[in-house]
Amino acid sequence: MKSIGVGVIGTGFMGKAHALAFAAASQVFDLDRRPHLTALADADEARARHCAEHWGFSRATADWRALIADPEIEVVAVATPNYLHEEMALAALAAGKAVYCEKPMATGLDGARRMAERAKGRPTLLGYNYLRGPAVGLMKSMIAAGEIGEIVAFKGRFAEDYMADPAVPHSWRCVRALAGSGALGDLGSHLIGFALHLAGDVQAVAGEVATIIGQRRTADGMTPVENDDQVHAVLRFANGARGVIDISRVAWGYKNHLAVEITGSKGTLAFDQERLNELRLFRPGDSGFTTVLAGPRHPPYGAFSPAAGHQLGYGDLKTAEIGHLLRGIAGREALYPDFAAGLVIERIAAAIERASAERCWVDLAEL
Ligand SMILES: NC(=O)c1ccc[n+]([C@@H]2O[C@H](COP(=O)([O-])OP(=O)(O)OC[C@H]3O[C@@H](n4cnc5c(N)ncnc54)[C@H](O)[C@@H]3O)[C@@H](O)[C@H]2O)c1
Fold this sequence. Notes:
By secondary structure, the chain is of the alpha/beta class. It has helices at 13-28, 45-55, 64-69, 85-94, 109-118, 134-144, 176-179, 183-199, 301-304, 314-329, 339-358; strands at residues 3-9, 34-41, 59-61, 75-78, 98-101, 124-126, 151-159, 202-210, 215-218, 221-224, 230-237, 242-248, 257-264, 267-272, 278-282, 290-293, 362-363.
């Protein structure tokens, strides 16, 4: 079996998730080429070396530009803080590589536009891994088959509590130039991705963004938080459906509560990422919601396990995402969300911020 050279930049939460997923992808899926873990980069050279050795990469470097220039590498995975995505992705595209980049795409709409422009005709994929879940795929196919009729409403919430404690220190995530928006970009981008995937194009938005904990501790004392902790928005879809979304990084008790409900003229589907192997379904005549457990009939579940109800996990969604990436590079699937689709998500996020600042509805055609 031929191999395809992979370079991963970043060794944090996502760098490790990418490394595990690239290592597992050809065991889980029948791929044309097996990923070869060619090089791992991190600003901290000792950590890059340590992780490369433990995760199975051939080389380690502190210089991400050297990784991109490596002729053995065909795919560059960007798993670094948001402010580095644009520069790294553009450099990788300029070097002729396929690019797999974490979300949010960039720290602002201008950067996302530059990335989408330069990616035209090139294989790119963004890290919207939650779209890969078996229950989400089932939801999408049931909607497409008309099983809940015409979509009437989308309700979505992405709540986490990783910054709920005021004692959580200041970090790059609180700095506009380094993170872009706050909860909106970090969590809301996933939720907007779900809205587009399941309910269709968004035409207009209204919303309000708020910073709940205004300053956090640094070594020099208390420092202002420059972006949002919490966002509420109303969406108007092109098909006439209406939506509400609620996003928070300060919602005590929630760890990965990416929850959506789609109500149609003939039923409702409900999903919560904290129970990612389940889809709840109601159709007229039912006396309440029925829970469907994910199993081999719900791709990509069967590639991992032949037994229903035995459950996939977060890392499996990353492996499924890498399977999609490699089939896309081989020309067997259209990559989604690529940088062009990611730009649509960024435009909706920017429209919500503008609606909040100007206290009005914003039409997506204005951005
Ligand atoms: N798709 C998802 O489910 C998901 C989940 C968490 C984070 N993310 C995204 O992944 C990205 C990274 O987040 P994380 O939680 O892994 O962060 P992290 O802080 O855990 O890791 C970031 C890594 O980047 C490295 N780094 C920083 N500057 C660098 C440079 N100049 N060169 C090389 N390496 C450098 C750091 O040393 C660190 O290893 C963010 O954009 C975040 O939004 C996505």
